[in-house]
Design goal:
alpha/beta
Length: 667
């Protein structure tokens, strides 16, 4: 917004003072000579002001059409394809005839790859829209809809103004889709929203329109809507319509809202017929208008809630959550986007857990180069090339606890960006640890502590919902490891709450769990390690005293090795360094948790990396380590005092050790 209207506003402000300070022009008699009128006009400040304001108006209008100009500039980067319902513009970098990509929806091994061909997209787009139109009882217009299919987030931001999975331009009857790493659209709901707006006009409620769009898609990640709603009820408990449509402003997983919203519409259609769809679409549904909305549907709000509650209370068999098939009348032609977990925790005697050669991958959104971006994908390739096999993805939320018993959601690490990064990593053969983390203001999240049990219960209920969201994301997108918290020293003593959270998370996520404990007492004395699969520690124990050089054979590091071995043996579980890192400063070995607080020292950072690898890497109790940190934008200065190892000697150490064929006593 600022980039678009800033210059126009500046020019406008230059002209406004002249307008408001100009002299009042009296009525001019007809007999005044033309020469005098010209002189008055020339000397009046209104003339230059009008010119400046006119220029501002033209500049602003032109900048509003910058995406249109970008499309003209980049039109040769797209291949045009026409079908019965669509005019498709496919970015050439995605539409490469003969290039094959994995098709997770294929029925047989022989058809698990498909060609990235514009005509194939056209046919699939027609099938998808036809299925949606049938479910919505809409007759598609003979006038084709327009779609741009982008492989690049950078191109989509330039031409559509957003890197979101889809962007709608209803006045142009157009949708701009961002393709996933597998070459398919990432959110088919966009097509349904465009179809409905073209047929029915602007929706009265965006939330209800999204529920209708999910109903039109016909499944949730390849599973029937009713079956997945039943699964959510079994895993998390029942949610009300007030929860689903956010009428009370209480956080609920967007994934859960999406699935349950679609299931609710499907049940209404079952009970009231397809005619209910337009009534849903055309009636406003703001908080406080529940009864009016319900009356428009021919019932009361209590009646709607009761019907939903009774459906949820019916006995749901596990089979109802089974994967939808093409024979399922509620399935659609959209490809299920549910990859299998690439690196599950082996169970049973003789099995050893995988070793995580990890790097913490941080979201840096300047220039749009955060999670999910093209630049992030390039950085992930570099991470793979230095020998890493896993990344940690760290989405944040914000809290001012204990002053406020709330958590604020909606940081830059949007769900679609996190999901795209998961998919980018998996496409490169990298496993993923999902590590949700809290920013605390003021101070350190580990200092959060509650004197009031009621305040803690209210706060932890929000934290539980937040973690359940990422557990569901981890399950749907095949994440290999989930951290249930990071450095929350002040509240880990509330053991019962954490054990209940672990039980809830395991109902949703079937992969391994860990907790990223602070170094020291939080790690050494945690009371619920037995409920988790890995002992996680953010390993910022000092490696040496002030001014000393860290050595793997030093007494200090030797004591750390013995400490970790004893803790691992006590709990009979392997340890992961969920964070380990050293800034390139002179205090790195003595104060590993600090950065930029002393003179730069790249050599000491290198020595710290070397000491950690030499002392810990081949220990049988170590299951992996995640180096802090590699920025998604690839930024940083090789001579700064940050944790970033890129361009510094420490990265050579990491690449040398990660390139070895053995680690932690494993082949």
């Amino acid at each position: 917004w600022g980039a678009t209207f800033g210059p126009a506003l500046l020019v406008l402000l230059v002209g406004l003072p002249a307008v408001f300070t100009r002299k009042r022009v009296a009525w001019v008699p007809a007999e005044v000579p033309a020469q005098e009128l010209a002189a008055r006009a020339q000397n009046s400040p209104l003339g230059p002001a009008a010119v400046l304001m006119s220029f501002a108006a033209v500049l602003g209008a032109g900048m509003m059409g910058w995406t249109w100009l970008a499309r003209i500039q980049h039109r040769d980067d797209f291949i045009l394809s026409r079908s019965h319902y669509w005019t498709l513009h496919v970015e050439k970098s995605a539409a490469v005839p003969g290039q094959m990509v994995t098709d997770p929806g294929a029925r047989s091994a022989s058809s698990r790859t498909r060609e990235l061909d514009p005509q194939l997209w056209a046919a699939r787009s027609d099938l998808r829209l036809s299925a949606m139109a049938g479910r919505l009882e809409i007759e598609p217009s003979r006038r084709p809809l327009n779609a741009y299919l982008f492989a690049s987030t950078e191109t989509k931001r330039l031409m559509a103004g957003s890197d979101e999975p889809f962007t709608l331009e209803p006045r142009r009857r157009e949708i701009d889709h961002l393709l996933g790493p597998d070459g398919d659209i990432t959110d088919p709901r966009g097509d349904a929203l465009l179809l409905m707006e073209a047929a029915w006009g602007k929706p009265a409620s965006d939330a209800v329109a999204l529920a209708l769009a999910r109903y039109a898609v016909g499944n949730f990640h390849g599973q029937s809507l009713e079956g997945y709603a039943a699964r959510i009820a079994r895993e998390e408990g029942p949610y009300t319509l007030r929860d689903i449509f956010d009428l009370d402003g209480v956080y609920l997983s967007p994934l859960v809202r999406d699935a349950l919203g679609g299931a609710w519409v499907a049940r209404l259609v079952d009970h009231r017929g397809l005619g209910i769809l337009r009534a849903l679409y055309r009636n406003p549904f703001p908080a406080g208008s529940e009864e009016k909305f319900a009356r428009a549907l021919g019932t009361s709000w209590e009646g709607l809630e009761r019907e939903w509650r009774e459906e949820n209370q019916k006995a749901e068999t596990p089979g109802e959550g089974a994967k939808a098939t093409d024979d399922d009348p509620r399935s659609s032609t959209s490809t299920p986007r549910t990859p299998k977990r690439g690196n599950p925790l082996p169970r049973g005697p003789g099995h050893r857990p995988p070793f995580f050669k990890g790097i913490s991958f941080s979201h840096e959104f300047e220039f749009g180069w955060g999670y999910g971006s093209d630049q992030a994908a390039r950085e992930l390739s570099k991470i793979r090339d230095v020998g890493a096999k896993s990344i940690a993805i760290i989405p944040y939320a914000f809290t001012r606890a204990p002053r406020e018993a709330t958590i604020r959601f909606g940081a830059d690490e949007r769900d679609d960006r996190v999901i795209r990064t998961i998919e980018q990593a998996h496409a490169l053969g990298l496993s993923v640890m999902l590590k949700p983390q809290l920013w605390s203001s003021p101070g350190f999240a580990g200092a959060i502590a509650f004197k009031s049990d009621s305040d803690f219960d209210r706060w932890f209920a929000l934290y539980r919902r937040w973690l359940l969201h990422y557990a569901r994301m981890a399950e749907l997108y095949g994440v290999e490891l989930l951290a249930i918290g990071t450095e929350l020293d002040g509240i880990t003593g509330r053991e019962a709450a954490w054990r209940a959270l672990v039980r809830d998370l395991r109902r949703v996520y079937r992969g391994p769990l860990t907790y990223a404990a602070s170094w020291g007492s939080d790690f050494e004395n945690l009371s619920f390690w037995d409920a988790l699969d890995y002992l996680g520690v953010d390993m910022y124990y000092p490696l040496a005293g002030a001014g000393e050089v860290p050595r793997a054979d030093s007494p200090r590091i030797g004591e750390l090795v013995r400490k970790f071995a004893q803790i691992s043996a006590r709990h009979n579980k392997p340890i992961i360094f969920t964070e380990v890192g050293y800034a390139s400063v002179r205090t790195a070995a003595a104060k590993p948790w600090k950065d930029r607080d002393a003179a730069p020292d790249r050599e000491l950072q290198r020595q710290c990396y070397e000491a950690v690898f030499e002392a810990f890497y081949h220990q049988p109790w170590l299951a992996g380590l995640y180096w802090w940190k590699w920025p998604s934008d690839g930024g940083g200065n090789p001579y700064d005092g940050s944790f970033n190892p890129v361009g510094k000697p420490a990265l050579d150490v990491l690449a040398s050790w990660y390139g070895q064929k053995t680690e932690g006593g494993r082949q």
